[in-house]
Amino acid sequence: MNNNKATGNKGEQLAAKYLEEKGFAIIATNWRYRFWEVDIIASKENLLHFIEVKTRTSDKFGNPEESIGKKKMQNLRNAAEEYQYLHPEWKYIQFDVLAITMNYGQPIEYLLLEDVYF
Questions:
Q1: How many domains does the chain contain in total?
Q2: What is the CATH number of the domain that holds 39?
Q3: Residue 118 covered by a domain
Q4: Residue 103 CA to its chain's centroid (Å)
Q5: Residue 57 lies inside a defined structural domain of this protein
Q6: Does some domain include residue 108?
Q7: Which of 22, 48, 54, 57 could be stapled to 64 by a disulfide with Cβ–Cβ 3.0 to 4.6 Å?
Q8: 103-113 burial by CB neighbour count: b if 16+ within 10 A, else e?
Q9: pTM of the prediction?
Q10: Which residues lie below 8 Å from residue 110, measured CB to CB, with a gap of 6+?
């Protein structure tokens, strides 16, 4: 497994734990439909959250949240539309980004950007 994939996997594990501690109920991780994927689907207070997780081990290439482009957000929206079609009981949805920075020798930093628009 390459280092980027390992970092991403670790980040998604940390993200799920962090979100649960913040009162989210994890519904699915790495949910896929065709070529689209949602890192985490969670619920909190009758709101369905589609969460993109970005993890970095340094700020050499910028903050994690800065690496999410328009195409990635469009793919997230497409996947969310399909998920909502398959699960029509969810009327209210929200798109979030969870940026995780794991600098060596420093505490892990979490930045949850809620209700992002694209």
A1: 1
A2: 3.40.1350.10
A3: no
A4: 19
A5: yes
A6: yes
A7: 54
A8: eeeeeeeeebe
A9: 0.91
A10: 14, 18, 98, 99, 100
